[in-house]
Design goal:
Elements (H helix, E strand, L loop, with lengths): L1 E2 L12 E3 L9 E5 L2 H5 L9 E6 L6 E7 L13 E3 L5 E4 L17 E5 L1 H10 L4 E3 L4 E5 L3 E2 L3 E4 L5 E3 L6 E3 L13 E5 L5 E7 L1 E3 L2 E3 L10 E6 L5 E3 L2 E3 L3 E6 L2 E6 L2 E3 L3 E6 L4 E8 L2 E3 L3 E5 L2 E3 L2 E3 L2 E3 L6 E3 L1 E3 L2 E3 L2 E3 L8 E2 L1 E3 L5 E2 L1 E4 L2 E3 L3 E2 L15 E3 L5 E4 L5 E5 L2 E5 L15 E2 L2 E2 L37 E4 L1 H5 L5 E6 L5 E11 L2 E13 L2 E5 L17 E5 L2 E5 L5 E2 L2 E6 L4 E11 L4 H4 L1 E11 L5 E2 L4 E6 L3
Parallel strand pairs: 3-4, 8-10, 9-14, 10-15, 11-16, 14-17, 16-19, 17-20, 18-21, 19-22, 20-23, 21-24, 22-25, 23-26, 24-27, 25-28, 26-29, 26-30, 27-31, 28-32, 29-33, 30-34, 31-35, 32-37, 33-38, 34-39, 35-40, 36-41, 39-42
Antiparallel strand pairs: 1-2, 2-3, 4-5, 5-7, 6-7, 12-13, 42-43, 43-44, 44-45, 46-47, 48-49, 49-50, 50-51, 52-60, 53-54, 54-58, 55-58, 56-60, 57-58, 58-59
């Protein structure tokens, strides 16, 4: 623009300038001082172009306007359309200027005047979805700016707002520790009570700087988000109260921001509400109360690569912390050394569940590390998967957990769950069940504090009396001869160990070859009898049989509570005058011993050695093995 020397007054407002921008470069236009002067201007010709030197503050916000002679309805929005006292309308020629530039709508970059009205004008114009603050300048927001769109305007000028405009606040400011606060910052005015900007969709590169304490009882914060798919990126918040506030919210990202001195970096209200899918990434927090203070239930959110330095409260506070991730956060100093503070705090007891954490670093400060609790100190802490302390911990908030360490696997039990087993389980598919393999380069040691090592049939096993776990023990001699076989140990029908012992035989189909056969063996019951007894009154040595009677020259032994199957008997007497003769079945199953080989007991017959007459010895010993 080329301009002649001029002074502004009512009598000589005919100064012209050459315009090098807009739709007609090189044309001339009448020059007026500011927007107020334009409102007092009468066009000399239809479609006249007028150059406004500045908007409100000298040096900022001017530009080229042209007269629209046929426009009689457009309202004065203070930046894009100006209506004169006579009802003429001048529209701004934008050229390469951004429509959302706050200077073009009357914002004051010196901080002398408030800029809230200028920003509100941009929102209400509906011309753009982006509000742009310059990279330099101090802007005072003296009242709350609503970024909701205007739905209607009453005759008295009352504005009704509804819905969401989804508008973006953008700049490239930065104010770490308040540096540049007098050159590049957005500051609240003394009367702001609440948010400086409400219904914000996205914010990028803004530097908010508030005073060091509340004034006149007002509590204020920088941004109130509209609560859905919000992005706040590379902003700095030097505020005494909250940085960002929203109602619950979902899909909200807070990335590369700096919070200093804030009571809460982000605070959500709505007690009991489910708050989901927040992401906090690479934020620097110094002298902050909480990074996330959630009045409701925090679900499915991520906290990654944040710095929590010299801060006073829990990094995250929520009623419930569920299915959230905490990865490579840096916690340095802060907290309370005399009364350590939980770094993650769920205000509802035991509701820190199904989360995961990895690579978080603690350097000094008074903190209870709820991300990686100490052994046996899980109660009301981190529930989920943790990788922080050279071990993998899977735990519940109530205290039970399992830790995979470099030296093994360890279980922790809480006070509520009871003594549940630590299980290692496999599954099956159409190809069969999967084995569990233990392969040791030395011994495999099984230790049981109560003296028992229990072997049970698995949950997926076929329900069959004969289908009991088998212990296979490789036989070294046969293995050395390249014969793949093992000694098999298995409980028999009466739960005594039976064995199938491998032996080598000649292959009957080829005498030059050999084959393995398994010879049955068994662990016998050792029974000592020294007289008849009624039900349950026998000694432990004779307790295999519940009842013993002597009648008809025979000793009757039987048990109505369990069965004997195809028994093998070896009987010796302690009476030199008597010897064992034979035995008979008592109460065969279904009346057929031949068909089933199952009975309730046996009758034992003895004879005198000299006369051959039946007799009853004073005592005898018997080994009994149930059949296969």
């Amino acid at each position: 623009m080329t301009a002649q020397p001029q002074q502004y007054n009512a009598s000589n407002a005919q100064v012209t300038v050459t315009i090098e921008e807009g739709e007609k470069p090189g044309a001339t236009a009448r020059l007026v001082e500011n927007i107020d002067a334009l409102r007092q201007t009468t066009p000399e010709t239809a479609g006249e172009r007028v150059w406004v030197e500045y908007h409100t503050v000298r040096g900022y916000g001017g530009g080229l306007f042209y007269h629209e002679p046929d426009n009689v309805t457009s309202r004065d929005d203070g930046g894009a359309m100006i209506v004169t006292e006579n009802g003429d309308r001048f529209r701004r020629e934008w050229g390469t200027k951004e429509k959302g530039d706050v200077l073009l709508w009357g914002a004051d970059p010196t901080g002398t005047l408030g800029s809230a009205e200028a920003v509100q004008r941009i929102v209400d114009s509906g011309l753009t979805g982006t509000i742009v603050f310059p990279n330099e300048g101090v802007f005072v927001i003296e009242r709350t700016v609503s970024m909701q769109p205007v739905s209607s305007v009453a005759n008295d000028g009352t504005v009704k707002r509804q819905g969401e405009a989804r508008m973006i606040l953008r700049s490239r400011m930065w104010s770490h520790f308040g540096y540049f606060r007098d050159r590049a910052a957005i500051k609240p005015g003394p009367e702001v009570n609440g948010a400086m900007f409400t219904h914000v969709y996205m914010a990028e590169g803004l530097a908010f700087f508030g005073p060091d304490e509340k004034r006149d009882g007002h509590a204020y914060h920088a941004l109130e988000l509209d609560g859905y798919v919000n992005k706040v990126t590379r902003c700095s918040f030097n505020m005494p109260n909250d940085g960002i506030v929203t109602w619950a919210g979902a899909n909200i990202d807070i990335v590369y921001c700096h919070f200093i001195g804030c009571q809460n970096a982000v605070r959500t209200h709505g007690e009991g509400e489910i708050v989901t899918t927040y992401t906090f990434t690479a934020n620097l927090c110094q002298y902050v109360g909480h990074l996330m203070n959630c009045a409701g239930q925090l679900w499915g959110s991520q906290f990654n690569n944040n710095t929590w330095e010299a801060c006073s409260g829990s990094m995250v506070v929520a009623q419930v912390v569920f299915n959230c991730g905490f990865v490579t956060n840096w916690i340095e100093g802060g907290g309370n050394a005399d009364d350590p503070i939980r770094i993650i705090d769920n205000t509802t007891y035991q509701q820190n569940r199904e989360n995961w954490a990895a690579g978080n670093n603690f350097h000094g400060g008074g903190w209870i590390n709820t991300l990686a609790p100490s052994d046996h100190e899980y109660n009301n802490r981190f529930g989920g998967v943790n990788l922080d302390t050279n071990k993998v911990i899977v735990s519940e908030a109530t205290g039970s957990g399992v830790a995979l360490r470099t030296d093994g696997l360890q279980q922790y039990l809480d006070e509520w769950k009871g003594c549940v087993e630590l299980g290692i389980r496999s599954t099956s598919n159409k190809n069969g069940g999967a084995d569990i393999g233990l392969n040791s380069s030395n011994a495999i040691n099984l230790r049981a504090s109560n003296g028992y090592i229990n072997i049970r049939k698995g949950d997926g096993a076929i329900s069959d009396e004969s289908n009991k776990p088998i212990l296979n023990y490789p036989v070294s001699k046969l293995r050395d001869q390249e014969v793949d076989t093992a000694l098999q140990l298995q409980p028999d029908r009466m739960n005594m160990f039976s064995a199938r012992v491998p032996v080598l035989n000649t292959d009957p189909s080829d005498s030059t070859q050999r084959t393995v056969r398994r010879v049955p063996s068994a662990m016998p019951f050792i029974i000592h009898w020294s007289g008849a007894y009624t039900a349950g009154k026998g000694s432990d040595a004779s307790a295999y049989f519940d009842v013993s009677e002597v009648k008809d020259n025979a000793i009757h032994l039987y048990n109505n509570h369990m069965e004997t199957r195809s028994p093998r008997l070896w009987v010796t007497t302690n009476d030199t005058d008597a010897e064992f003769d034979h035995w008979e079945v008592i109460d065969a199953y279904s009346g057929s011993w031949q068909a089933y080989g199952v009975c309730k007991g046996v009758r034992l017959y003895f004879r005198e050695r000299t006369t051959g007459e039946f007799t009853v010895p004073d005592s005898f010993d018997m080994m009994l093995v149930n059949g296969w």
